[in-house]
């Protein structure tokens, strides 16, 4: 039996795990988890329209994601609607539109795969797209690490010394859109957010340094993706949900057992202090 | 005047409400300027507007004769402690290292020289032993000292501190004010939003007294007078009242 599809699935899912973990760190630290959820859902109409037009889903998805990020920004900056509401408004509209378009253009099975992922059906072109997107994202993070760090930690200092804060924000949203598109087949639209938020949050509980947090998040992302792949192959389950549960499993372990932040050790330490 | 900082006609509005109006002043370099006024007077707003961190209705800020935007690399801003995310995964020495970023420019990483200089600044504020602590593990005064060390690492000419003495211990306060005075003696220009009226004469050589508009600006002796203080605070200030913090 030809196992090439497994090899492609493995490379793609590991890459997706890594880049979601890396970008996820900035999403988590900048308080953009809801935005991350929104962008990932909002690529759906773009995917649908690409399919209808017969072009690669990458282009439609990116346009859709970028338009959503701008739409959200525009509403909250030009009205008194708060940013979490404007996120909810724009993304649910985009997502709803996407569902309708896909349902009319494709079958129900295809919709399920787009929503929940099907890593085993990854083609060579998709794998290469993921690798290239991954390389771009990682390169940008490495080149602009200082600017990302200072603007995430202390936006005011960054603005004071001349960094373009809005440009950094929209560039991050653009990278997020790319990462979402790269993750579509591995995790599916609905649960990309778990790959973005959970490994990064797990890492957040385990270290006090951003550089280490990024590496840990990439690691947990990759491992969760491989676990998802394994169960997908073994049990014929959609990969997205399994990956989401795997990321959560690691998070629970960190939540309980992290040496500094885990609740078990914190309770233990405060009992010792009380007894002393 | 091509020396010092000149602010002309500064006005700031927030959703149609005037929070600052008609602010005009000029200070030479080498001054330690306290910005004082009642709560809600617009003290923090003033420095944020000067630095372009919030939009202004109108007004011009000139530093050394040029628009402030041209010399951003010479400015260090120390924010209010309440505005920092203390859970951020960053340790003390890396926080100070951030101060070296403006002069490094894009694409360059901080190297040995920057790291050593950052440690040197950390030592100046007496926080070298805490280099590897996550910033949330420190007391208020220790945190403030770390952020001052970051400002020192910027090798700036102009410093803006927003309520640096709120809720910090006596030792930290002394360390900080000594460093600020030392910077001033070396010709730097320092603006400090001060949260109350204690030690005004002890700390500052110049004052900006505001309450939505400029009440008085100039040397501490000229500004810290009953007639100005009463206008600013809308309440009587006997000369004994001004004994506070002398």
Indicate the radius of gyration of chain A in whole angstroms.
19 Å
N- to C-terminal separation of chain B?
33 Å
> What is the H-and-E element order of chain B?
EEEHEEEHHHHEHEHEEHH
Assign the CATH topology of chain A.
ABC transporter involved in vitamin B12 uptake, BtuC
**What do we call the CATH homologous superfamily of one domain in chain B?**
P-loop containing nucleotide triphosphate hydrolases
Give the second-level CATH assignment, the architecture of one domain in chain B.
3-Layer(aba) Sandwich
Number of domains of chain A: 1
> Which fold does the CATH topology of one domain in chain B refer to?
Rossmann fold
**Total of helices of chain A:** 14
- Which structural class should the secondary elements of chain B be placed in? alpha/beta
Computed CA radius of gyration of chain B, to the nearest angstrom: 18 Å
User: Based on the structure given, which CATH architecture of chain A is correct?
Assistant: Orthogonal Bundle
- Share of helix among residues of chain A? over 70%
* Main sheet specs of chain A: none
Oligomer: heterodimer
CA-based shape of chain B: globular
Overall pLDDT of chain A, averaged? 90
Q: What share of the residues of chain B lie within helices?
A: 25-40%
């Amino acid at each position: 039996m030809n196992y090439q599809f497994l090899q492609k699935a493995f490379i793609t899912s590991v890459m997706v795990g890594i880049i979601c973990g890396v970008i996820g760190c900035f999403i988590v630290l900048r308080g953009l988890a809801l935005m991350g959820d929104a962008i990932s859902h909002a690529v759906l109409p773009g995917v649908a329209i690409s399919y209808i037009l017969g072009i690669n889903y990458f282009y439609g998805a990116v346009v859709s994601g970028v338009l959503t990020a701008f739409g959200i920004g525009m509403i909250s900056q030009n009205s008194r609607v708060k940013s979490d509401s404007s996120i909810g408004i724009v993304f649910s509209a985009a997502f709803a539109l996407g569902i309708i378009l896909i349902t009319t253009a494709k079958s129900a099975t295809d919709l399920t795969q787009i929503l929940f992922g099907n890593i085993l059906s990854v083609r060579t072109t998709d794998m290469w797209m993921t690798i290239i997107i991954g390389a771009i994202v990682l390169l940008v993070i490495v080149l602009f690490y200082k600017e990302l760090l200072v603007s995430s930690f202390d936006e005011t200092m960054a603005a004071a010394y001349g960094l373009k804060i809005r440009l950094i924000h929209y560039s991050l949203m653009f990278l997020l859109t790319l990462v979402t598109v790269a993750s579509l087949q591995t995790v599916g639209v609905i649960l990309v957010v778990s790959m973005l938020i959970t490994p990064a949050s797990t890492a957040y509980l385990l270290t006090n340094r951003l550089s280490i947090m990024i590496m840990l998040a990439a690691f947990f992302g990759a491992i969760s993706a491989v676990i998802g792949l394994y169960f997908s192959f073994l049990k014929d389950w959609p990969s997205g949900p399994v990956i989401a549960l795997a990321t959560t499993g690691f998070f629970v372990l960190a939540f309980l057992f992290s040496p500094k932040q885990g609740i078990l050790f914190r309770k233990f330490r405060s009992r010792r202090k009380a007894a002393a | 005047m091509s020396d010092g900082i000149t602010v002309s006609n500064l006005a700031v509005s927030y959703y149609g409400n005037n929070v600052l109006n008609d602010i005009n002043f000029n200070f030479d370099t080498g001054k330690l300027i306290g910005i004082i006024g009642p709560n809600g007077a617009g003290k923090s707003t003033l420095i944020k507007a000067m630095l372009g961190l919030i939009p202004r209705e109108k007004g011009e800020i000139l530093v050394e004769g040029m628009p402030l935007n041209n010399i951003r690399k010479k400015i260090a801003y120390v924010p209010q402690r309440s505005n920092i995310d203390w859970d951020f995964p960053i340790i003390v020495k890396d926080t100070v290292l951030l101060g070296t970023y403006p002069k490094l420019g894009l694409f360059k990483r901080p190297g040995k020289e920057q790291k050593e200089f950052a440690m040197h600044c950390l030592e100046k504020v007496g926080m070298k032993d805490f280099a590897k602590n996550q910033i949330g593990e420190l007391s208020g005064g220790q945190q403030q000292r770390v952020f001052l060390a970051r400002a020192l690492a910027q090798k700036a000419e102009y410093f803006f501190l927003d309520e640096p003495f709120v809720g910090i211990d006596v030792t930290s306060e002394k360390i900080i004010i000594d460093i600020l005075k030392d910077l001033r003696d070396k010709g730097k220009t320092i603006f400090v939003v001060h949260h109350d009226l204690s030690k005004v004469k002890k700390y500052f050589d110049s004052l900006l007294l505001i309450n939505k508009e400029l009440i008085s600006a100039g040397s501490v002796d000229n500004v810290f007078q009953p007639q100005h203080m009463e206008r600013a605070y809308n309440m009587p200030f006997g000369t004994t009242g001004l004994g506070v913090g002398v």
